[in-house]
Amino acid sequence: MRVVARAAAILVLSAAPVMAAEADPCTPNLWPRRTAAAEAVLGDAPLSAATMAFLRSDAGRAAAMARRQAQAMRDWAGLCEYRADNAALAASGSRPDLVMMGDSLTDNWVYGDPGLFGTKVVGRGIAGQVTGQMLGRFQQDVIALRPKAVHILGGTNDLSGAWGPFRPEDIVANIAAMADIARAHGLRVLVGSLTPSTALVWAPEVQPAALIVETNARLKAHARANGLTYVDYYTPLAGPDGGMKAGLSDDGVHPNRRAYALMRKALEAALAGQ
Questions:
Q1: Which of 36, 123, 129, 230 is most buried, judging by how many CB atoms fall within 10 Å of its CB?
Q2: Does residue 229 contact residue 189 with C-beta atoms inside 8 Å?
Q3: Which range marks the domain in which residue 126 is found?
Q4: Helix ranges, 189-249 (H)
């Protein structure tokens, strides 16, 4: 039972009934914070073989599909996730130096390295999102906060086929669209590389290593051609097989706290212009 409970924490969020149109359709928040899910992949020990087997099983994959379907019906882009936080930040009068836009890698980063985040560095990651969903909430979760810079990190879920077939060039197109919006508002844009992986626990049929390398090459070329800052997380994290180095991921996909320490060094060097 504990194996199933831990795996379910990674995959399943509590669902709320579909709500009629009203003044605040996000009350209560449809997607509560995923502290337990983040902690499951941030620890020092790899996920157990039984947990990994469940995540790859028909039951585990069905749970992931159910979550995606529920999200699509209720809040496809995740507009409800940070709406209250954004309002509170705006009311405080604080202007962030940096907004971190992304998927679970950014969402988990807030838990894995809380000292990095606060009113000046704001996390806006949502686990499981593809870059199209990030683009859909970019105005609300980034531009409206009036930051000085934005860090965009996403694409692994796209490559997994979480919302249908996707190509590396499609990921770059969505990230380029976000970057164009940000630059039109005077923001500095940092584009993070995809992190290494040889297998995706929720999509075992996908062979991601070569796709990740191709996507990163395209992202780096786009950043160089358009005056964006490319942040290379792949190099410090990757082993010779194209996966995470030993000790840097509990499931082979998500960085743990050791990996986030390396990623923070890369981010800080990029912010400093090194």
A1: 129
A2: yes
A3: 95-271
A4: 208-226, 234-237
Give 217-239 pLDDT, tens digit per residue: 999 999 999 999 999 999 999 99
What are the phi and psi torsion angles at 125 (to 5°)?
Answer: -100, 145
Q: What is the pTM of this model?
A: 0.84
Contact 116, 109 (CB under 8 A): yes
Q: How many helices (H) and strands (E) does the chain have?
A: 13, 5
Last residue of a domain, one of 45, 75, 105: 75
**Looking at the structure, do residues 60 and 148 belong to the same domain, yes or no?**
no
Query: First CA to last CA across the chain, in angstroms?
Result: 48
Tracing tokens 């912010």 back to the chain, one arrives at: 271
Looking at residue 5, its pLDDT comes to 42
Distance CA 89, CA 240 (A): 43
Q: What is the DSSP string of 110-141?
A: HHH-GGG-SSSEEEEE-TT--HHHHHHTHHHH
